[in-house]
Amino acid sequence: MLGKVAKKLRLFGFDTEYLANTDDNKIIKRGLDSKRIILTKDKQLHKRLIKLKIPSFPIISENELETLVIIMKESHINYVYSVPNENTRCSLCNGTLDEIQKPSLVNVVPKKVFENTSMFFECSNCNKIYWDGKHIKEINQIIDKINKEIKQV
């Protein structure tokens, strides 16, 4: 579940590293080295992080939307911008996205997508192509729900 949360955080524009099936000591070292906040479902790891004074918080919900709302509230984020935005990152590798000229994609993206889409983005790291399609509309619906929950007192 945290992998899906990480992908959404990247799309929202947050620099997010996801370490799956990684030894706790490596996670701790990576947290110290990168000065990142560690999100974890592992209660024992969270206790160790607290003792080491490494910024972290536990993920206790199995509901993705609820988890994203908790992350935003705990991080004191009052608003999540619709995607794509100037900070949107690659959902796969966390690379930055750059706008790419449509003519260069004529044989790269599906024909219908090419014909019906005006803006395209490319990951600066893995070269994945993104466009404003159905998936982005669904992500923005999630963002709307998050923003409504963040504003509730």
Write structural notes for this entry.
This protein has 153 residues and is α+β, with helices and mostly antiparallel strands. The protein has helices at residues 2-12, 24-34, 43-51, 64-74, 111-116, 134-151, and strands at 38-40, 56-58, 97-100, 120-123, 129-131. It has a 3-stranded antiparallel sheet with strand order 3-4-5, with no helix packed on it. A hairpin with a 5-residue loop joins strand 4 and strand 5 (129-131). The model has no long low-confidence stretch (mean pLDDT 93).
Descriptive terms for the model:
single chain, 153 residues, alpha+beta, 3-stranded antiparallel β-sheet, two-stranded parallel sheet, 5 strands, globular
Task: Show the helix and strand layout.
Elements: H1 2-12, H2 24-34, E1 38-40, H3 43-51, E2 56-58, H4 64-74, E3 97-100, H5 111-116, E4 120-123, E5 129-131, H6 134-151
Parallel strand pairs: 1-2
Antiparallel strand pairs: 3-4, 4-5
Helix pairs in contact: 4-6
